[in-house]
Amino acid sequence: MTAAMSVIPPADGWTVADLDALPEDGVRRELIDGVLHVSPSPSPAHQALVIS
Question: Looking at residue 5, what is its pLDDT?
Answer without folding.
Answer: 53
